[in-house]
Design brief:
The complex is a heterodimer of chains A (125) and B (471). Chain A has helices at 13-23, 35-44, 61-70, 88-96, 113-124, and strands spanning 5-9, 28-32, 49-53, 80-84, 105-108. Chain A is of the alpha/beta class and 125 residues long. Chain A starts with a strand and ends with a helix. Chain A has one domain (5-119): Response regulator (Rossmann fold), CATH 3.40.50.2300. In chain A, helix 2 runs parallel beside helix 3 (61-70). Chain A has a five-stranded parallel sheet, sandwiched between helices. Chain A is 42% helix and 19% strand. Chain B has 471 residues and is α/β, with parallel strands linked by helices. Chain B folds into two domains: 8-213, no CATH class; 300-469, Histidine kinase-like ATPase, C-terminal domain (Heat Shock Protein 90). Chain B contains twelve helices and eight strands. In chain B, a hairpin with a 3-residue loop joins strand 6 and strand 7 (443-451). The two termini of chain B are 70 Å apart. Chain A binds chain B through residues 11-15, 17-19, 21-22, 25, 34, 55, 57-58, 85-86, 88, 109-113, and chain B through 233, 236-237, 240-245, 247-249, 251-252, 255, 257-258, 264, 267-268, 271-272, 274-275, 406, 409, 413.
């Protein structure tokens, strides 16, 4: 069976390495350090799921990526898991209005490895 | 009555008051006119002299001009043209007409023996309240002269009983005293009341100003409070992110996702350790910033602080770091640049921060220049590098806590985003400012501008640290 692919996007290299170690037990993992890299990686080969940090170079960079994915026909269906530091999800959600959330799940950092795996397992079926 | 206070607003208030009073007198005058009509109608049947019946003439005249006045006031009220000068003139005119009518009434009803004589004092009171005492003394004199002419000329022609001359002279004497005293006493009381009114008005004005001031202060305090909680939120985030990395790394290692003997495991341990170092730096800078903002906890002020000496000390201390990074660190200074007063540890911290930044954001082989000079009444410490530079759009938020440009972050994980906020705090505490200029990819120049003489500080409007972009 071919392993499903995960794109992990976070600007903290150590965090990326640690989370990769967890995800690699079940998935094929690619990483990106910012929004641009993430969009480029997705354009090159669409992953089965994206795990996105919210606050990278810009305050809501993760949201920008998620929005870009959701507004594109070919990437709309890719599930998105948001990782947040404090409560950016709440803050950004207030900003963009409550009607539309460009993600499927959000998890607050630090996230326990088993929680992350369970969330991804649930979304990928 | 003296109107000692000038001011359009005060006039506006008095005009409104005057308008109300004039309107009240118009209402009174309707009653007076009506009473005179009744009086005139009743006089013949009561066996009064024939002339008394002619009082209806006075009544009709009073009612007629009162009607005109009523219409005039209604017009003013509608147009909101309650001009103080116009009202005062109108008041004088109606008082004069009223008095003329009264003089005629007195003449018709027996001259020196007229029962209407006491009404003169009533009119004097009203006139003095509404106009000035000086004007009313003149009016009283005119009234008295008119009465004197009529009394002495004799009212017998109208069929009244003859009154001995000495009796008429006595009535005139008493009338003169009554008119003069009434004006004088009324003016004294009215002036006191008016002064009290003016004082109240001034107090109300002061209260309004103070309230506005307090509201402004409150708004400022609320803004400060909002900035503080935003800062708290940012601080929490800045602390939580690396903590999350440390925690996740430890979980991954503890739960066996990574072989403890593998290079990846040591990488995670090293990474976690670096994040802890970063956390410690953030905590240190936060403490430093809190100390600077809490004047009580600040190191003591010293007099005669040599800025050039501080710069040389910092350059010496950082030379090994520069060498390790293969960056040339040069310092130069013009004579002694001595600040009248300063907090040496804080200044040293700020200079060190600027030089450290320059080293941090320079590439191997780069050069950092530290230069101290005098410029006008200011000491200028300049740190120039040919490093990675600052994106123009980022210059505006350069001195904001936790703000780090994306290229700075990519260049090095080291850096708390608090250093320049601290430098700005130090500069402003010394009555100076910090400026930054930069070209992306070519380098940056930071300038600490501090007043040399005691007491001389920068214009507060420009004390705010400037950011300048070199095109």
């Amino acid at each position: 069976m071919v392993r499903k692919s995960v794109l992990l996007v976070d600007d903290d290299a150590v965090f990326v390495d640690a989370v990769s170690a967890v995800l690699e037990t079940r998935y094929q993992v690619r990483t990106a350090a910012n929004g641009h890299e993430a969009l480029a990686a997705i354009a090159a080969a669409a992953p089965d799921i994206v795990v996105l940090d919210v606050m990278m170079d810009h305050l809501s960079e993760g949201f920008d990526v998620a929005r870009a994915l959701r507004s594109n026909e070919t990437t709309r269906a890719i599930p998105i898991v948001m990782l947040t530091g404090v409560d950016e999800v709440f803050n950004v959600r207030m900003e963009i209005g409550e009607s539309w959330f460009p993600y499927d799940r959000y998890l607050q950092k630090p996230v326990a490895p088993e929680t992350l795996l369970a969330t991804l397992g649930e979304l990928l079926g | 009555m003296r109107l000692t206070v000038k001011g359009a607003e005060l006039h506006q208030i008095f005009a409104a008051e005057l308008l109300d009073r004039v309107a009240w007198f118009v209402r009174l005058r309707w009653a007076a006119g009506a009473a005179l009509l009744v009086f005139a109608a009743a006089a013949p049947s009561a066996g009064m002299p024939l002339a008394w019946a002619r009082v209806w003439l006075v009544a009709v005249a009073v009612l007629a001009y009162n009607g005109a006045l009523h219409a005039l006031l209604a017009g003013w009220r509608r147009n909101g043209q309650a001009n103080y000068r116009w009202l005062a003139r109108c008041t004088l005119t109606q008082i004069l007409i009223d008095l003329a009518a009264l003089v005629f009434l007195v003449y018709l009803t027996g001259g020196a023996a007229s029962p209407f004589l006491p009404f003169f004092t009533f009119h004097m009171v009203i006139g003095t309240i509404m106009l000035s005492a000086r004007a009313m003394f003149a009016v009283a004199a005119a009234v008295w002269l008119a009465c004197a002419a009529l009394f002495l000329g004799g009212a017998e022609a109208l069929g009244h009983l003859p009154i001995p001359l000495e009796m008429r002279a006595a009535v005139l004497g008493v009338l003169a005293c009554a008119l003069g005293l009434t004006v004088y006493l009324t003016d004294t009381v009215a002036s006191q009341l008016k002064e009290r009114g003016v004082r109240l008005f001034r107090l109300a004005e002061e209260l309004r100003d103070k309230t506005a001031e307090l509201e402004k202060l409150l708004a400022e305090m609320r803004a400060i409070e909002a900035r503080k909680s935003h800062f708290m939120l940012l601080s929490a985030h800045q602390l939580r992110s690396p903590l999350a990395t440390v925690k996740t790394s430890l979980d991954v290692l503890r739960q066996g996702y990574v072989d403890p003997a593998s290079p990846r495991a040591s990488g995670l341990i090293l990474g976690a350790s670096e994040r802890v170092d970063g956390l410690l730096r953030i905590v240190g800078d936060l403490l430093e910033l809190a100390k600077l903002r809490e004047a009580m906890k600040r190191a003591p002020w010293a007099s005669g602080v040599n800025l050039a000496q501080l710069a040389v000390d910092v350059a010496d201390a950082l030379t090994p770091l520069a060498e390790a990074r293969q960056i040339t660190l040069e310092s130069s200074y013009e004579a002694d640049v001595v600040l009248a007063r300063g907090v040496p540890p804080d200044l040293e911290y700020a200079i060190e921060n600027l030089v450290h930044n320059a080293l941090k954001y320079s590439r191997p082989g780069g050069a950092v220049h530290l230069h101290v000079r005098r410029s006008g009444g200011f000491g200028v410490l300049e740190v120039r590098d040919n490093g990675i530079g600052i994106p123009p759009e980022f210059l505006a938020s350069l001195f904001v806590e936790f703000a780090r440009a994306p290229n700075a972050r990519r260049h090095t994980a080291e850096g708390t985003g608090l250093g320049l906020a601290i430098v700005k705090e130090v500069a402003e505490a010394h009555g100076g400012r910090v400026e930054a200029e930069s070209r992306l990819g070519e380098g940056s120049t930071f300038r600490l501008v501090l007043p040399l003489q005691g007491g001389q500080t920068l214009d507060p409007r420009v004390t705010k640290s400037e950011r300048r972009v070199t095109a």
